[in-house]
Amino acid sequence: MATTYHTKVLIIGSGPAGYTAAIYAARANLQPIMTTGFEPGGQLMLTTDVENYPGFRQVIQGPWLMEEMKAQAEHVGTKLVYDAIKKVDFHQQPFICEGENGDTYVAKTVIISTGAQARWLGLTSEDQFRGFGVSGCATCDGFFFRNKEVAVIGGGNSAVEEALYLTHHASKVTLIHRRDHLRAQSVLQDRLFKHPKIQVLWNQTVDKIVGEENPRKVTALHLKNTINNEITTLKVDGVFIAIGHIPKTEIFKEQINMDTEGYIITTPGTTITNIPGVFAAGDVQDKVYRQAVTAAGQGCMAALDAEKFISEASDI
Ligand code: NAP
Fold it and tell me: Is 300 an annotated catalytic residue?
């Protein structure tokens, strides 16, 4: 039977931003409800080793970290509901959100922490080696390619920044782009072209990621020339896909202000959106930093912003 939940704080999405918001909101006695989505945990569920989340001297695993955040959020009093919101109505207070399960959530405030997903190439071999040499985040995984040869796919700011970042670890970085010029800012391009460790391959797409099992690892890329369709092999130990991210904001269209790429717009230095009582935290509103720790920080900010909103709004 369908349930109607009433809450002071509804948190939509269960990545680091959502769980941190939940921990702070629960500890502020706001009895938050979190809808986890049907793939709880967000992008960290797709990573393996995590070495840059503070507090852990040893390498930890992304899924383990999310399990701990979930347990902590529940321990301090968050109600988790395994449901995905399919529709929101922010035109009136309290806000009404409908879940895929048929349940309704009536909320005084909403924290949107639905995150973003890396855009992937869509190759079967990419799925096979994701987390085993295929990565969507150089800052997260670059360290594991010390003195190894890696490739970066893409021609935007992210791809160029990732290539430059990877030069701190890898012995050689090959940037592979499907056209013959980059869309990245020229200042970044200058740094890229001048870097002795970086080569650029133009007019190439990845046809297949080649690797081995036991242990599972990437060994090479089959590249297809977009002009003459010629296939060549590039030996690499890892490949970073940097062809853009997609914020998960489909259900908020027409409800809240977003930029042209679909990221929710917040007042700088806060998580406040254009709808009073609706806050956004993490990758759903941040296309620059995109780190678990920055998302967690923004989740904390969202809970504090929601708490302040509730305490100041006497009529909700
Ligand atoms: P982006 O600007 O959308 O660039 C994506 C790149 O991937 C493009 O070069 C595109 O090629 C390529 N691409 C897309 N689909 C592909 C496919 N299926 N196969 C091969 N290549 C593919 O994405 P982004 O670099 O992640 O940047 C996203 C936004 O964040 C941008 O607004 C960017 O300016 C911003 N950003 C800013 C900074 C900064 O200011 N420091 C840093 C990072 C990101 P084409 O060029 O041929 O379309």
Answer: no
Taking the CA of residue 287 as reference, the ligand 1 atom at the shortest distance is 30
pLDDT score of 231: 98
160 CA closest ligand 1 atom index: 25
- DSSP 8-state class, residue 41: T
Is the beta carbon of 155 within 6 A of some atom in ligand 1? yes
pLDDT digits (tens, 9 = 90+) for 263-316: 999 999 999 999 999 999 999 999 989 899 999 999 999 999 999 999 998 666
Q: Say if residue 48's pLDDT is above 90.
A: no
What is the 3 state secondary structure string of 162-174?
A: HHHHHCCCCCEEE
Give, in order, the Cα–Cα distances in Å from 31 to each of 7, 42, 107, 303. 7, 22, 11, 12
- Annotation says 97 is catalytic: no
Measuring CA to CA, how many Å separate 301 from each of 35, 73, 211, 270? 19, 16, 42, 7
